[in-house]
Amino acid sequence: MALPETLPEDRAAAPGGTPTGAAGARQGFAARGLLVALVSAAAFGTSGPFAKSLLEAGWTPGSTVFLRIAGAALLLLVPTVRVLSGRWHLLRRSWRQVLVYGAMAVALPQLAFFYAVDTLSVGVALLLEYLGLVLVVAYQAVLRRRWPALPTMAGIVLAVGGLALVLDLPGLLRGGGVEISGVGVAWGLLAALGLASYFVMSGASHEDSLPPLALAGSGLVVASVGFAVLGLVGVLPMTFRADDVELAGAVLPWWVPVLELGAVAAATAYVTGIVAARLLGAKVASFVGLSEVLFAVLFAWLLLGQLPGLVQLAGGLLILAGVVAVRLEEAGGKPADDASPVAAAGSGGAPVPVEAEPLGPREPDGRRGVEDLHR
Question: What is the rounded CA–CA span in Å between residue 95 and residue 292?
Answer without folding.
Answer: 29
